[in-house]
């Protein structure tokens, strides 16, 4: 039994699972299908973000001859996806997915934890990573950039932390949550100036492969595009998987004002960050990271099931940092989150329950909400200086 446990928690097994499941998910999408790019449509959208930028064609218009759905990423993302577009699509999409798996792996392994703890976070999230890879999502990269902003601020490398924050925000607005770690910086002025520097650099860089006028116009077009996307999310059967969606769908509330839910959540989060004497405590900092990752998803109207890779990395960090021994309540809460927020799209959950309850009522958000509230409680009450 001890040898079996050692095998399932070993680095070779966990890394094989982490990268192997992601590779399996994307290769299956590439090989199985009707010969079209339908199974990796997201990658084709990403690719045309770059192509449209260099051809100075609107990034946000429909191009049904190439892909369905719409692009919602800004011009900086074109620079990120560019290297992959020089390969045939079936190779490029596989390399993109493996890059996302690798960058998130690197970020997690750099956390201020023992290697065994980092590996357990990977193990806990292997299924969520596979789901994200199957959908060819950008969310693992965004998660990694948020984690990098946390790590670099802890290491007093504010210049690189600023790059992670600005780059993450420029790709997908979720990245801006890295600013929450501003309180942990020892040189806040340097962080601010570095963000201004990287903001200017990343604003200009896309112009080198396009034109200044087109890039400026693209930024003007981006805001109304995001507004339209948010409106579409509110009536989508796949989107609106957040606390606001949960409340709206369970209690049949139409036109729920987001701020009624978001403002109390922001207040709770803000209060939890006020224990100044613990700002240098690693357990407190890691709980703050977990809180930020979960908050980003459960209070975003744009959240979809694949987005929960971001939140579930936060759940994994929370579990690893629970005060020992872990109580029955925390174990039950973790298992509940694992089943509903991570495995709800798998055969672990009966299809009838998944189709008729979990998806229509946005129940994926519920366990992560409960975990987030538990994290807030711990940040407000735990005596971190007395923990061994």
What does this structure look like?
- The chain has 18 helices and no strands.
- It is mostly helical and 388 residues long.
- Helix 2 (11-31) packs antiparallel against helix 5 (89-109) and helix 16 (328-342) packs antiparallel against helix 18 (365-381).
- The protein is globular and about 60 Å long.
- The model has no long low-confidence stretch (mean pLDDT 92).
What are the main properties of this structure?
0% strand; mainly alpha; 388 residues
The biggest sheet, with number of strands, parallel, antiparallel or mixed sense and barrel status, is: none
Task: Please tell me what the overall shape is.
Answer: globular
Strand tally:
0
- Number of DSSP helices? 18
How much strand? under 5%
> What gyration radius follows from the Cα positions, in whole Å?
21 Å
The residue fraction in helices comes out at 55-70%
Brief summary of the model shown:
Helices cover 65% and strands 0% of the residues.
Q: Which helices and strands, and how do they pair?
A:
Layout: H1 2-8, H2 11-31, H3 41-55, H4 76-81, H5 89-109, H6 115-124, H7 126-134, H8 139-154, H9 158-171, H10 188-204, H11 212-233, H12 243-250, H13 258-272, H14 282-298, H15 308-320, H16 328-342, H17 351-358, H18 365-381
């Amino acid at each position: 039994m001890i040898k079996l446990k050692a095998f399932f928690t070993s680095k070779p097994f966990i890394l094989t699972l982490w990268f192997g499941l992601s590779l399996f998910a994307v290769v299956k999408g590439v090989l199985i299908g009707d010969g079209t790019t339908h199974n990796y449509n997201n990658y084709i959208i990403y690719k045309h973000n770059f192509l449209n930028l260099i051809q100075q064609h609107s990034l946000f218009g429909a191009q049904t001859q190439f892909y369905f759905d719409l692009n919602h990423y800004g011009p900086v993302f074109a620079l990120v996806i560019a290297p992959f577009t020089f390969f045939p699509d079936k190779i490029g999409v596989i390399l993109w997915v493996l890059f996302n798996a690798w960058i998130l792996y690197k970020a997690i392994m750099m956390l201020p934890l023992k290697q065994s703890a980092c590996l357990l976070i990977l193990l806990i999230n292997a299924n969520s990573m596979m789901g994200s890879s199957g959908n060819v999502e950008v969310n693992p990269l965004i998660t990694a950039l948020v984690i990098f902003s946390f790590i670099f601020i802890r290491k007093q490398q504010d210049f690189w932390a600023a790059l992670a924050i600005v780059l993450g925000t420029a790709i997908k607005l979720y990245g801006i949550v890295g600013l929450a770690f501003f309180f942990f910086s020892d040189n806040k002025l340097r962080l601010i100036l570095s963000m201004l520097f990287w903001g200017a650099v990343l604003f200009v860089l896309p112009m080198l492969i396009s034109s200044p006028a087109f890039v400026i116009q693209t930024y003007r077009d981006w805001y109304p595009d995001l507004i339209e996307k948010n409106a579409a999310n509110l009536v989508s059967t796949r989107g609106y998987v957040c606390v606001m969606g949960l409340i709206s769908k369970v209690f049949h509330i139409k036109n729920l004002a987001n701020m009624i839910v978001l403002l109390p959540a922001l207040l709770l989060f803000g209060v939890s960050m006020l224990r100044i004497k613990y700002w240098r405590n690693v357990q407190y900092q890691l709980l703050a990271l977990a809180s930020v990752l979960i908050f980003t998803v459960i209070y975003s109207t744009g959240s979809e099931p694949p987005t929960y890779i971001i939140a579930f990395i936060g759940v994994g960090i929370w579990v690893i940092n629970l005060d020992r021994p872990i109580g029955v309540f925390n174990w039950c809460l973790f298992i509940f989150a694992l089943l509903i927020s991570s495995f709800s799209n798998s055969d672990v959950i009966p299809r009838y329950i998944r189709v008729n309850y979990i998806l229509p009522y946005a129940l994926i958000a519920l366990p992560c909400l409960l975990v987030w509230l538990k994290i807030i409680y711990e940040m407000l009450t735990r005596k971190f200086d007395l923990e061994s």
